[in-house]
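Cross-posting from the modeling subforum.

Setting up a comparison between two proteins and wanted a second pair of eyes on the formatting. Protein 1 (sequence, then structure tokens):
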Amino acid sequence: MLEMDAMQEVGGMPRRVIIPPAFRAAADHLKLSPAVISGDHVFLTGVTGAASDGSIPTDPADQFRYAFEKIGEVLREAGLSFRSVVEMTSYHVGLRNRFDLFNAVRLEFVEAPYPAWTAVEVAGLRREGAIVEIRVIASIDPDE
């Protein structure tokens, strides 16, 4: 399940990389880890709402759902779910115009007790046409 070929120790604490099979090509190309387990937390790389074929949908709701679906895929690879998410940061192009829609889609994936959340307006994202990037931190502690 977990990508173990990139396990290393940093500051006396082991770190494990999580790379779901669908993320392998992008991870290799961009030289990044979709997620890293460090201590009792999983730190996910920010994801945009690109479709599985790499295209960016023009429908904002589709972009939001695809981003959350990708987060869910990484969490499942770590044996976790959205209930494990303790913090979320979302970066938006046009935040004010789409906040209510984003929030409605977000609530399809997270439930009480809700994670801490910061939404940030940005001028642009790396992918042309992308209007959201979401990153999360999840706890692997069953008591959290």
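Protein 2 (same layout):
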Amino acid sequence: MTEPWFGAKKTLTLTLAKRLMATAEQEIAARGWAMYVAISDDSGTPILVASVNGAQLASYEISVKKARAAVHFRRPTKVWEERVRGGAPNVMSLPGVVASEGGMPLVVDGEVVGAVGISGGTGAEDGVIAQAVLDTLKDLA
């Protein structure tokens, strides 16, 4: 009898990451916003990062960090924003926390397969684009 040494792990493919990026690009362009989009794998490592409509350079790093935080903590970065606003600034001492909306884990069948991080607009605007990416994933999964 063969031991099941390795389980079946879902992974975010480059093909799917490109499709999710296309959604983000379309949504950003339709609104005339300028943003960075980061799509990461389940370790928080970027698969794709793109500047849409000439986003400010600072948004590159922020988008990557939002995606990484969403994967590592397995929750939207908006959660940390709400905690800080609710009077718990101590959460900012946790390594890797980004307390700004726009980072969301990508979940398929209960497994975190990656994340999206959006930066360049207000937190709420970043969240709109991240949600559009999640909606596309739900339609495809």
